């Protein structure tokens, strides 16, 4: 497995791309309202990326994906395709996932949005998924392993009676959208062999299910849903291993570590 260690020049480009990806999620937040279609949200983000930022939406035409973002509602785990007929409803929880390319480098991030007032159980799932992301991030430092990251995520999810999706995971990222290593969010022994070194850049993006971990791919060959139709939530950041810990490229303005009992 060839894990690319990024140079300081590459890290600077990824810092820029990450900040721009974060900005897309900040920009779209006021538009995430009951009655808006996921197609409209996608169009607003596409326009912002291409006309305001001068970035390229990485998902558009990636292996045939038809949109500039993934928008996944309620029981959709990931890769939801924006649709001009699909309206958000009050009480929905929604993941919006964007990846921009700037100067040849990728910035990849996603977050949950609550549409109007959501049920307490939906909010709790979203909050715990966010805590899982941050508990994973907090493990990142030189000579730790991806096992440490995965184990922290899995333990917190299961302690809260949720499950971790196994079929989809985080990934190395740089000039390519998906690079080695695969960043699993559940602990397996082979992860103990993937040691974190300064200059490694990857995403952490746990998908946490309210019910069982099983998922199903729909007929469009993109949309992934929970098999039991229960809710799923996901948060994602792109980060680099530094000599004394980590730096998150996709941090949003004012965002702080979101750890249990720390928000």
Main pleated sheet: 4 strands, antiparallel
What's the Cα radius of gyration?
A: 17 Å
Structural class: alpha+beta
Please give the count of helices. 4
Proportion in helices? 25-40%
The average pLDDT is 97
Parts with pLDDT < 50 across at least 5 consecutive residues: none
Strand content: 15-25%
Distance between the termini: 38 Å
Succession of helices and strands = HHEEEEEHHEEEEEEEEEE
Number of strands: 15
Overall body shape: globular
Brief digest:
26% of the residues lie in helices and 25% in strands. The protein has helices at 8-28, 38-53, 120-137, 146-159; strands spanning 56-57, 70-73, 76-78, 93-102, 105-114, 163-164, 170-172, 179-183, 201-204, 207-209, 215-217, 224-226, 232-234, 237-242, 245-248.
Question: How do the strands and helices of this protein lay out in sequence?
Answer:
Elements: H1 8-28, H2 38-53, E1 56-57, E2 70-73, E3 76-78, E4 93-102, E5 105-114, H3 120-137, H4 146-159, E6 163-164, E7 170-172, E8 179-183, E9 201-204, E10 207-209, E11 215-217, E12 224-226, E13 232-234, E14 237-242, E15 245-248
Antiparallel strand pairs: 1-4, 2-4, 3-12, 4-5, 6-10, 7-8, 9-14, 10-13, 11-12, 14-15
Helix pairs in contact: 1-2, 3-4
Would you kindly provide a written description of the structure presented here, covering whatever features stand out?
Helix 1 packs across helix 2 and helix 3 packs antiparallel against helix 4. A hairpin with a 6-residue loop joins strand 7 and strand 8. The strands form five sheets. Strands 1, 2, 4 and 5 form a four-stranded antiparallel beta sheet that branches. Strands 3-12-11 form a three-stranded antiparallel beta sheet, with no helix packed on it. Strands 6-10-13 form a three-stranded antiparallel beta sheet, covered by helices on one side. It is 26% helix and 25% strand. It is α+β, with helices and mostly antiparallel strands and 263 residues long.
């Amino acid at each position: 497995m060839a894990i690319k260690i990024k140079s300081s020049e590459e890290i600077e480009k990824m810092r820029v791309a990450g900040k721009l990806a974060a900005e897309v999620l900040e920009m779209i937040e006021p538009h995430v309202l009951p009655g808006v279609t996921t197609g409209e949200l996608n169009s607003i983000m596409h326009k912002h990326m291409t006309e305001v930022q001068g970035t390229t939406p990485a998902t558009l035409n990636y292996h045939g994906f038809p949109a500039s973002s993934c928008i996944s509602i309620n029981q959709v785990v990931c890769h939801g395709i924006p649709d001009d007929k699909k309206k958000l409803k009050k009480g929905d929880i929604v993941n919006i996932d964007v990846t921009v390319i700037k100067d040849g480098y990728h910035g990849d991030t996603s977050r949950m949005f609550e549409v109007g007032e959501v049920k307490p159980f939906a909010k709790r799932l979203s909050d715990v998924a966010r805590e899982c992301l941050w508990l994973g991030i907090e493990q990142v430092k030189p000579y730790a392993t991806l096992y440490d990251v995965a184990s922290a995520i899995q333990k917190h999810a299961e302690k809260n009676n949720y499950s971790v999706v196994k079929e989809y995971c985080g990934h190395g990222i740089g000039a390519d959208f998906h690079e080695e290593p695969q960043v699993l969010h559940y602990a397996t022994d082979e992860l103990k062999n993937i040691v974190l070194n300064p200059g490694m850049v990857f995403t952490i993006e746990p998908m946490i299910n309210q019910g069982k971990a099983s998922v199903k791919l729909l007929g469009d060959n993109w949309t992934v849903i929970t098999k039991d139709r229960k809710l799923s939530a996901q948060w994602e950041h792109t980060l680099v291993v530094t000599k004394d810990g980590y730096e998150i490229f996709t941090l949003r303005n004012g965002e702080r570590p979101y750890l249990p009992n720390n928000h």
